[in-house]
Write a sequence for this structure.
């Protein structure tokens, strides 16, 4: 069995729980039989520092502060993600709002009449529209004007346009959204949805086939 001087040297480690299991058993066996060492151990335990309320409060405050910082970082991250999503959505929506969609012809969508000054007046009755497209070309031996209207999400929420087009002096215009050069002598006006960049350049046979479904609005 260990001597008292060795036990006394090991008691601080025993109190702090730092000694080995074998040493712990030796110390406990010795203290059980040695009154002097037992008294010394009791004194050490009484002198051991006990965490004060202020220390515990300080520890809790540090823990709470850490949690608060993590929560703040998480909330900032969530806000940034939400803002980024809203920004992307706004950009996509803004782009989609300007994508034109052709307006297919329905009965009474456009009416036409010849004015006394040889100007052809065209009236659009479809409510809102964004713009219109037009060109002229000979078909079946006559000078014809082809046109169609388009709409966008943005134009759908705007007030209805008056939709008054004029053909005269070699121009097709609504005086607001677009103006196109056309033949000065126009014999017919058609409504046709199509690729107005490609159609004018087609060979005559291909062109007449492509415009076979055009709706006649007016003819001389």
């Amino acid at each position: 069995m260990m001597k008292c001087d060795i036990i006394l040297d090991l008691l601080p480690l025993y109190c702090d729980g730092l000694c080995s299991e074998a040493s712990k058993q030796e110390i406990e066996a010795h203290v059980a039989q040695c009154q002097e060492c037992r008294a010394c151990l009791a004194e050490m335990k009484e002198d051991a520092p006990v965490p004060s309320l202020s220390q515990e409060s300080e520890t809790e405050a540090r823990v709470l502060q850490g949690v608060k910082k993590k929560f703040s970082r998480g909330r900032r991250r969530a806000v940034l993600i939400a803002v980024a999503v809203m920004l992307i959505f706004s950009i996509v929506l803004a782009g989609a709002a300007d994508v034109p969609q052709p307006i297919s012809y329905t009965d009474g969508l456009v009416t036409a009449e010849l004015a006394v000054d040889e100007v052809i007046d065209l009236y659009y009755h479809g409510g809102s529209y964004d713009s219109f497209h037009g060109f002229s070309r000979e078909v079946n031996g006559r000078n014809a004007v082809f046109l169609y209207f388009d709409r966008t999400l943005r134009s759908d929420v705007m007030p209805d346009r008056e939709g008054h087009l004029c053909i005269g002096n070699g121009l097709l215009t609504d005086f607001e959204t677009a103006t196109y050069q056309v033949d000065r002598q126009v014999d017919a006006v058609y409504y046709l949805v199509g690729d107005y960049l490609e159609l004018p350049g087609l060979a005559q046979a291909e062109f007449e086939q492509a415009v076979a479904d055009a709706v006649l609005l007016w003819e001389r």
